[in-house]
Amino acid sequence: MLKVYGQTDKWVGTWTMEYKPWPTTNGIKLQLQIGKPERDMLYPAQLKVTYSPFSGTYEVLLAKKNDNQLGIGRAKYPVEENPFHLGAWMLYLNGTLNYQAKGSPELGLQRMWIDSHQLYMQGLYADDEMYAYMKDLLRELLSRKDIVLKKQNNTPWQHKDIRRMLHPEEDSIYFGIYDKVDVYDSIVPLSIRDENVIDRDTVTLLLNGKPLLDKSYISETGRTLQIPLDSGINIVTLFADNYGRLPPNTGAFKVKTTTGSYMFDFSDRPNLYATFLVAQLNRLPRKPVKDTMKAVAVNTPEKRNDIPGTGSAVRDSAGGAMKASAGVTGPQAVTTARTDISHIQGRNSGHPVKDSIRSSLLKPIDDKRIAERHTSLLEKISVQQADVTLELWDDAAEDGDSISIRMNGLEVVTGFPVKRQRQQLKVTLQQGENRLIMLADNLGSIPPNTAVMRIVAGTLRKYVTIKTDLQQNNMLLIIYEPEADTTGKQ
């Protein structure tokens, strides 16, 4: 059965290579095991790097770009690394794996170059200087040398972690897939643009494996496509073909539906220098309209098929969904009058530890920093639930950032530390407009003050990237409109 399956999917199986820095030395061994695909597009995989005494095992997501290319996910989650860590150097394993049908099939790595002196030198003498030479050889292979993997067998990689890699809503580690969003529309407008300066970025866009754009230039003004959705899950994959003249690629797309607007963006920190990002649009059947409020049905027939909006969503980092802006992705957040902080410490953590914030903090406050600083609008979100949850974390280095959060003139938190693990704040919205303002208390050791926030309200999962400093605040405008009562009761 495995042999037959391997013949139907040429990517699945074990691929290996050995690179010898010197003819008389031991070689660096690479092993890539690729599992069965999700919807014939998303391939969970495990990469092993061995150069005695070093050994590292990493989980990585691959995405099918076309019949001969697999995009390599930005996140290489380290399951095990000893006796030192490769860290940011794994970013060099980006771009695509190109299939070559020879006597023995091969996968050749085609990188997108990251020109960063700081990244290239980072960590060479960390941990223990005795490994500096070994690190230098590993770095050379990851960043510059040819990598060609030969196929050994057709046995798919199997592991308990595959489910969490493909279903980000169930875990905090971001592999490039944004949380699923529910929509009711059969056709939705998708607008794509360059979020930064026009620098000749090109992108490839796929819907359920079929190309919508192929190596297309994008601009600040962008273009809009009308995309038809199948019932159930629809996979939209955006590939960066290059980094343009100003790395990285800053392409983004927005989908607007009756449930809200959803942004997926390569500019989100967890997506920087990524090869691809993935959106999941779950098309549901429209909710039936009960004919109990006859006066409304007669007077406003055009609203029979309207679906109340629930907001917008975006993506997770290699440590928290993007867990994005997550981009977005390629990420989302909100608030409630009960303010619990939940510490999520890693993928195997149990129930969050709750540390209740005193209700006395939820009091009117006149924060002069709101008037003295410029406040930029991050997103306008519509929700139907009064109680929403804000999840906050630092998807990069924990550098001592802390922020204050204000909502409708109330003090939610002050001096709130931004940590690597997710923390939760729950707040109750007032009906109508709610202004949620984030203010930097400091700049940490690595300016500016940055964090990822995920807004959770019912089925809504919205990621935004917070970037504040001592001159600029960020604001979320949250519109709370309760769902219409169709029972006939007031």
Descriptive report:
- This protein has 490 residues and is mostly beta strands.
- It is built from 6 helices and 29 strands.
- The strands form 6 sheets. It has an 8-stranded antiparallel beta barrel.
- A hairpin with a 2-residue loop joins strand 16 and strand 17.
- The protein is globular.
Shape: globular
Mean pLDDT, all residues: 78
Spans of at least 5 consecutive residues whose pLDDT stays below 50 are 1-6, 289-361
Structure summary, number of beta strands: 29
What is the CA-based Rg, rounded?
24 Å
What is the strand content?
Answer: 35-45%
Number of helices: 6
Structure classification: mainly beta
Question: For the largest beta sheet, what order do the strands appear in spatially?
Answer: 1-2-3-4-5-7-8-9
- Helix amount, in percent? under 10%
Distance between the ends? 61 Å
Topology of this protein?
Layout: H1 2-8, E1 13-19, E2 28-34, E3 42-51, E4 54-66, E5 69-72, E6 77-82, E7 96-100, E8 106-110, H2 117-121, H3 132-143, E9 148-153, H4 162-166, E10 181-183, E11 187-194, E12 202-207, E13 210-217, E14 223-228, E15 232-240, E16 251-257, E17 260-265, E18 276-283, H5 294-299, E19 340-343, E20 353-356, H6 368-372, E21 374-383, E22 387-393, E23 402-407, E24 410-417, E25 423-428, E26 432-440, E27 449-457, E28 460-468, E29 472-480
Parallel strand pairs: 10-18, 21-29
Antiparallel strand pairs: 1-2, 1-9, 2-3, 3-4, 4-5, 4-6, 5-7, 7-8, 8-9, 11-14, 11-16, 12-13, 12-15, 15-18, 16-17, 19-20, 22-25, 22-27, 23-24, 23-26, 26-29, 27-28
